[in-house]
Design brief:
The chain is mainly beta. The protein has four helices and 29 strands. It has a single domain, classed as TolB, C-terminal domain (Neuraminidase, 6 Propeller).
């Protein structure tokens, strides 16, 4: 098995390098490269070394917050989840592992890293669910959703890992699967498209699905979502919002990436409609009637900013200045003539429902060209700490309210 994993890893690297070499020699209308290194990161998950302390010192946060490095050497660090005992879980798809990080001496830095569950197939989404006396850890692999019991007091698993949902489409295209339990007790799962833009053969691609905790009663909850990696519920009204990445090859500034208010049985446009009611030049011809049924975004991000994780702030320390606020990780462009994104922003809902945005943690793109990080996900600790994963540098930042 190890031999085949090595062969597969080498094959991916060789194919990725071939793609990079091909792109470097081509002129494709509407196709630009922000950074070949970030493109390689997008294709393979491989990133750069951890940033230096000097680079970290140049990250810019709001005046009342302090930025430190919580953990490093976590290859392709992606989705985060706080445990009941205050530990931090992080998925590492390239390692096939979900790690448990613990700060045992309280100095603000993880000093104990445990490979909690390994030998997984590109694990991404993670969430926790208590059922009777069992504390389950749910894991979304690229082709399945499984679970295992964990004793959070000891930080050890109990029994075997059980795959509950095993037929998730994963043959090509967007490979990540994100899961979360909703306020209704159902398990929500997003599955991205198999392509940049196409009509899917499998109706479960480019959707959000919903299942019972045991994996039964699965159905499509919302469709037309090209790649909704992050989603969360607004704590003041339980509205469900999801980020979505717009398609490529239509230039630097179109279409916008999206924040969508997800409604059951809602259709969100892809592949026929982009952004705020614009018919797609490739697949939108003759689809005018769909404009009457497609739900437009609640908020538009800049094109190719690649919004991923979204987290509504819930800790009491944040309520005064960050009431009705979500943080969103902008992974950053790989396909613009100039790099853009590479930061965490805050979205604040006004009394009239309008959404205002402002920067929260910036300068991962330094001097306009040098990229030291690509934010992925956001989680809130019991003390109000805000954790931000970075799959490019393989680190997790801690942003603490002073």
């Amino acid at each position: 098995m190890r031999f085949f994993k090595v062969i597969i890893g080498l094959s991916i690297a060789v194919i990725s390098m071939a793609i990079l070499a091909f792109i470097a020699t081509q002129t494709v209308p509407g196709f630009e490269i922000s950074s070949y290194r970030t493109l390689f990161n997008t294709l393979t998950g491989r990133g750069i070394d951890s940033p230096s302390q000097q680079q970290i010192n140049h990250l810019i946060a709001p005046e009342d917050f302090q930025v430190t490095l919580f953990a490093e050497n976590i290859p392709q660090a992606r989705i985060l989840k706080i445990t009941p005992t205050g530990g931090l879980l992080v998925s590492s798809p390239s390692k096939g592992t979900v790690f448990l990080l613990q700060d045992t001496n309280g100095d603000g830095h993880a000093d104990l890293t445990t490979a909690l569950v390994s030998n997984l197939n590109r694990p991404h989404g993670i969430d926790l669910h208590k059922e009777s006396d069992n504390h389950w850890l749910y894991i979304a692999e690229t082709d399945a959703v499984g679970r295992i019991v964990v004793n959070w007091q000891t930080g050890k698993t109990q029994g075997n890992y059980q795959r509950l949902i095993t037929d998730i489409p994963s043959s090509k295209g967007h490979w990540t699967k994100t899961i979360q339990f909703g306020p209704d007790g159902w398990l929500y799962l997003t599955s991205g498209s198999s392509c940049n833009v196409c009509e899917e053969k499998d109706p479960r691609r480019a959707t959000m699905m919903r299942f019972q905790p045991d994996g039964s009663e699965g159905h499509i909850y919302a469709s037309g979502l090209r790649n909704a990696v992050g989603f969360d519920w607004a704590p003041w009204n339980n509205n469900l919002y999801a980020t979505d990445n717009g398609r490529d090859l239509l230039g630097d500034n179109f279409p916008p990436c999206e924040l969508n208010l997800i409604k059951q049985d809602g259709f969100y446009g892809w592949p026929y409609i982009n952004g705020f009611g614009k018919l797609d030049p490739d697949y939108g011809q003759g689809k005018d009637t769909l404009l009457n049924h497609s739900i437009s975004p609640s908020f538009g991000f800049r094109a190719h900013n690649a919004p991923l994780g979204i987290h509504f702030l819930r800790h009491p320390d944040h309520n005064q200045n960050y009431k009705h606020t979500a943080l969103v990780a902008l992974h950053g462009s790989w396909n613009r003539s100039t790099p853009d994104g590479y930061k965490v922003i805050s979205l604040q809902w006004g009394e009239n429902g309008n959404i205002m945005s402002k920067d929260f943690l910036t300068n991962f793109l330094q001097n306009g060209q040098h990229i030291i990080g690509r934010p992925v996900d956001i989680e809130e600790g019991p003390d109000g700490s805000i954790y931000i994963s970075d799959d490019y540098a393989g680190v997790i930042y801690r942003v603490l309210y002073k």
